[in-house]
Each structure stands twice: as structure tokens, then as C-alpha cells.
Amino acid sequence: MMxxxxxxxxxxxxxxxxxxxxxxxxxxxxxxxxxxxxxxxGIADVAAVFVTGAExxxxxxxxxxxxxxxxxxxxVPSVADQVEQALQELPDLPHVKIYNAGSxxxxxxxxxxxxxxxxxxxxxxxxxxxxxxxLLVDRRxxxxxxxxxxxxxxxxxxLETVDPLVLSRLNKRMSLPDFDRAARFLVDSGVELxxxxxxxxxxxxxxxxxxxxxx
Length: 215
Ligand code: SF4
Fold this sequence. Notes:
about 20% strand; binds iron/sulfur cluster
């Protein structure tokens, strides 16, 4: 069963939002230990750090992560300070995941200076996982990967769906060739990749949504 979601642009999505929740500037949003499947099999505990930075510049239809960010035009607390605080609170695990409710390589959300400090903070870990929109995957990813080596960098990107019709209605401003380009760039730069896939995005229902998510 399929019925395309309405074609909403940034203005329509912004108009449909409620007010921005008040966030605590004095400490990081959250950190915890959670088990994750490993690329090469098995499961490992991962130190998961959820930091608060500037809001993502994209306005995807299904995304509510803006609630955990500050407005782009204002000042934002240091993301590196938040990562440092989290790593002091968490056990010393080989795998560290840093999610900023946006893109780690968006320099307004995570500044170049913060990325350089974070590279120092994660020295000695086995793997660092960050998230990024495919259009923001560029030389900054390769530079960060080189800065943390031999720690492996893994970048998580939102593919969302391989259905081009539904993807075009998510206001993600990304096409399947855009995702492909970013994935190839990461692989060529020695960076590992994970993809976020929506089960039942707007427009997919029932068994069809499982078929699309696994195709
Ligand atoms: S790119 Fe990611 S964080 Fe930004 S709006 Fe889309 S889903 Fe949300």
C-alpha cells in the first residue's frame, strides 16, 4: 500500500513545529552505555554520547532532533567540553559514539577547533562513530579520520529509504546518487559507514514498508 506524503518545504515544516524546549547549557544532554551489533559480528558495549550543538540546517519531514539543539544564529556550548565530560563519566570502552542531533562535520554545529580537541580526547579508542548528512561528507571527514588514526572512524548517514519517490518527499535535499557519492568518498578515505533506514517512512505502510527497508 502506498500513498505519497505531501510535498512540504522548509517553511511548511517550520510552521508545523511547536516551540523549542529550553535546554540546559551547563551540561551535556546525555551519555550512557548501550550494546550494539558490530560490523564483523558479535555485540559490544558502546559509550554513547549525545551532545547539544547548533540545529541541523536541513528540515527533514520526519525529524524531531531540532528539539535537542540550539538555534544556529545563537551561541552554542562547546561540544568538545561535552564530550570530555561524558568520557569522564562513562567507563573506558573501545567504542565511542558521538551523536549531535545533526551532522558532526557541520562546522556550525561542531567547530573545527572542537573537532580537533575531540580527536585528542578519543586517542587510544578502537572506533569512533559520528553522524553526518551525505551532503556534508567532504574533506573534513578525511581530515578527522587522519587525526584520530589508528582509531577507526565510522560515519552514520541517513539513507532513510531507497524509494526515490518517498525520499524526494522527505525534504532531505538528498538523492540516492548523493548518498552513493558520499559513501564512495568515505570508503575511499578509509572511513567505515553505517546507514540509518526508516521502517515505514511517510508513504510506506504494512508489509511493503518492510520490503522497502530491506531492499
Ligand atoms: S539531516 Fe538528520 S538531523 Fe538534520 S533534519 Fe534531517 S534527519 Fe534531522
